[in-house]
Predict the 3D structure of the following.
Amino acid sequence: MTNFKGKRILITGASRGVGFEASKLFLKAGAHVIGTGRDETRLKATTTILQQLGDFTPLLADFDDAQAPAAVAQAVKAQWDSLDMLLNNAAVQTYKSDWMEEGLQLLNDQWRCNVFAQHELIFRLQDLLKAGSEPRIVNVSSGAGSLQALKESPDMPTYRLTKYALGGMTILWAGLLKGQVAVNALDPGWLKTDLGGPGAPGEPSDGGERMWEICSLDWSETGKFWHGNQEIDF
């Protein structure tokens, strides 16, 4: 199992769900965590809990805002001279039955938060990651965004397409950063989070544990899609 003590970790979407559960695990293991949240009240409440566990720094950031990734990268660089893990967890989902119900605007609106923000954070933080110790990037995707899932169902098309695109982005960054930064995608499972809804079969803590597992893989593993420590198909 990887020793996370002293690791410097940026977790987006740390104020709820998978990001919150993963933050708890890494802080208990002695990591230093900067965590973003889009809701100020919720982030303050989360910070109260997480700072009791370890070194947690909150950052208010809404990735629907085109300026947010640059502001987050600047804040991380102001605090640290290296970064060991970038966990791109923040995302949004709006359930609609198909493209016709979604209309034209939803894809445009959610592309930034679900794809481009992750890309920009990697772009802006790659030098800091290269200065880290066995640095890793984890892009939190979904089984709903696998190629097989797209073939099987046309529902929630924007969410599925953005997660499928995130898989492609993961592969391309992994190729560019091979031997320097490990880049992988994670399917945390269908969980009882704000995004997954109360009818999901899994608990948020399951997603936190799967984040721990993917970050514990051998550093040579890159450019792949994982459900915890089990490789799955993009």
Notes: Residues 145 and 160 are 4 Å apart (CA to CA). The mean pLDDT is 94. The two ends are 25 Å apart (CA to CA).
